[in-house]
Amino acid sequence: MTITARSPDEALRPKRLARKKPLRFRPRLPGRAFRDVMEDRPLGGRFRAVRRIACALAWTLPCMLIQALLLLLPGPAKARFPMIYFRTLCWLIGMRLQVVGKPAEGRVLYVANHTSWLDIPVLGAVLDTRFISKAEVGQWPLVGWVAKLGRTVFVSRARSGTAGEAKDMSSRLHGDESLVLFPEGTTSDGTRVLPFRSSFFAVAPAAHLVQPVTVVYDRMGGLPACRRDRPLFAWYGDMETGSHAWRLLRRTGTRCTVVLHEPFPPDAIPNRKAMAAEVGRLVAISAAQLRQNRPAQPLPAPVHHA
Hints:
Elements: H1 8-12, H2 32-38, H3 45-70, H4 77-92, E1 95-100, E2 108-112, H5 119-126, E3 130-134, H6 143-149, E4 153-155, H7 162-174, E5 179-181, E6 209-220, E7 223-224, H8 230-233, H9 241-249, E8 254-260, H10 272-291
Parallel strand pairs: 1-8, 2-5, 2-6, 3-4, 3-5
Antiparallel strand pairs: 6-7, 6-8
């Protein structure tokens, strides 16, 4: 066996590749489809999402027919049946509910923070109330039909129709119906509560009571939800509803906590700007406690300082 000595310059010189061109692997699913396949996905998540979507559609379609018939009949059934529908819907999509506090009785204006489209089925399962939604939702297929059957009040962003819409909301409250108000005006990213707009509280005098409500999605996989999990619940910006629902419905162990704080009469805070500030502060404090995994408890009604 012979050993050939090489010079230091030749030994440090990199070896030539036998292949002139380097190997390049291309994904079989290019673009967004490839990234979606390669991202973290729970075992059986796709089948779970398909099953939940199919069950939700199978439950929604007959309920639409039942509610349409109930609207033609007198009695409180048309107001109670949406709660049954939303409770079952939350169970079908795997969303557990934790309710802290009691809803007020009578015609109540519920004031809540807004994080996602999930707020509608969650609050609909807990409260006997009607929702206030933007006019564009009424044009959406299936979702718009469900909203109309639930007697949702649609509001536009045009100033020309503000007076008529405020009158419609006040008439609902005078007719012994309750309303849910999202005074943030839009959905947040789930990490904070946006400032409440005082213009939304113009209909507060028509209500018998105003009750602040905090909604926080605080469990993912059975564990406390952290900042990384917020976008899975929050629906904001230019997010698509279909893709957002698909990612969420693949997950297990999700939970939403609804805190019903102490109600107060609207004349306790006659200034609507002060009411917006006080209620927004109360809801923000409670939401921060839930995001920090602290025990949830209803907070006392805000007090107006003259």
